[in-house]
């Protein structure tokens, strides 16, 4: 049998297939449909310091090769997550990561500290790349110095595996990646959605209540592949790639060191930035 186990810092995954945050809820919503124990890991939806209702409707819009969303990090808040959601999901036979979001450095640290106390959560994904919130989110992830400041603060109080999620909506994603690596990130995940907009030409109005939103789907795959390739060659920590493949084809899955095919929108794949990753092809199919 082929060994597909993959290492992210000090966490061993059964295989390099993970769910992307925001597309899989808390995992329990899919437990009746798939064996969650077959996954390398689950990244649960974004969690903030307080409960958030998200943005006003409409907050989703179909595009020719994907979709725009402006959900706005709707979630129950970290206290409810710890008290009610965590007891329901801690028994899953896979690695669980919590996507941590905030509007300030203090909020990021508060959420991370509370998640740090949960024994069955071996890592967090620090979301400094969400384009659908008015404060925080992508604002922290578009400048190297700001990204590093958030990561340094969280690193001081969080003692497990720290993954940082990067935005593609920057001039140089490599500069951001290097900054957060130096600040103490154990791994990187990318990409988050691309900032986009859709207009109802008959109404002459934007299709989203927030005007702009995050673009995902098959159309983003070339951007995702380019970003992962650039970052994997620039840092020494693991890279988790995602974006552009809404429906995985199991017959095409392969170990990350031998394939550059799939960077799924809904299923993330881990790319190692060890010696093997430095041989990633300079082009993809």
Structural descriptors:
TIM Barrel, 23% strand, alpha/beta, 285 residues, 6 helices
Provide structural commentary.
This protein is an alpha/beta fold and 285 residues long. The protein has one domain: TIM Barrel (Alpha-Beta Barrel), CATH 3.20.20.70. The chain has helices at 78-89, 105-116, 138-141, 144-157, 173-183, 221-232; strands at 6-8, 11-13, 17-19, 41-47, 60-63, 66-69, 95-100, 123-127, 161-165, 187-190, 194-197, 199-200, 205-206, 212-216, 239-241, 267-271. The chain has an eight-stranded mixed β-sheet with strand order 3-16-15-10-9-8-7-4, covered by helices on one side. A four-stranded antiparallel β-sheet has the order 5-6-14-11, with no helix packed on it. The radius of gyration is 18 Å and the shape is globular. It starts with 5 loop residues before the first strand and ends in a 14-residue tail after the last strand.
Under the CATH scheme, the architecture is Alpha-Beta Barrel
String of helices and strands:
EEEEEEHEHEHHEHEEEEEHEE
Number of structural domains: 1
Q: What's the number of helices?
A: 6
Decide which structural class fits the backbone. alpha/beta
CATH top level class name: Alpha Beta
From the alpha-carbon coordinates, what is the Rg to the nearest angstrom?
18 Å
Please outline the helices and strands:
Blueprint: E1 6-8, E2 11-13, E3 17-19, E4 41-47, E5 60-63, E6 66-69, H1 78-89, E7 95-100, H2 105-116, E8 123-127, H3 138-141, H4 144-157, E9 161-165, H5 173-183, E10 187-190, E11 194-197, E12 199-200, E13 205-206, E14 212-216, H6 221-232, E15 239-241, E16 267-271
Parallel strand pairs: 4-7, 7-8, 8-9, 9-10, 10-15
Antiparallel strand pairs: 1-2, 3-16, 5-6, 6-14, 11-14, 12-13, 15-16
